Amino acid sequence: ATWMADTQWIDTGKPVSASSLLKLFKEADDRLVALERTVAARYTQNASQMLAAGPGVKVVGYTKDYDTDDAMNPNTGDYACPVAGLYRVTAALEFPAGTLPVGGANMSLNLTVEGGTATVIHDLSTTETYARIMGTVTTRCTKGQKLSLNFHHDAPPTWNTSGSADYN
Fold it and tell me: Model pTM?
């Protein structure tokens, strides 16, 4: 075997380049940093959003309280996961009195993972004219994968969120 500056022998007896080893060490280091790193964000809705009847109406129009990675696009409602791992998402929407249809409706607040299925955060059937829908879900996310909140209701025509940053 010929020894070159970029080659080392390891216990398998096969040469491995120093640049390949460096790449493996960097990947391992990145994974450890991701395990030790806190990722946190909180966004609220400070203005009412009209939500049409039907499935998967994306919640948008967020105002940032804090975000360790500036990972949210408030206009599209997409949060790009800055590191791979488990993400716990807590969400709530409030509908002011008089905006929900009299006679009841079915609604759900869902977390959608890009390339995956939606997970129900909270499901509610209401006969009130006022409601708050909220919950928490944990999901796995790869680095760069997008999360979004989507709302479904089956009572036309449209509903408005309250626009209260205390609950949205």
Answer: 0.72
Q: What is the mean pLDDT of the chain?
A: 78
Q: The dihedral of CA 139, 163, 61, 43: what is its sign?
A: negative
Tokens 């997008």 belong to 146
Identify the H or E element spanning 27.
helix 18-36
Q: Tell me, what's the pLDDT at 72?
A: 95
Residues with Cβ < 8 Å from 104, sequence gap 6 or more? Answer: 125, 126, 127, 155
Which residue in 151, 148, 155, 162 sits closest to 94, CA to CA?
162
User: Among residues 42, 40, 61, 39, which one has the least CA distance to residue 166?
Assistant: 42
The residue among 103, 100, 93 whose CA lies nearest residue 53 is 100
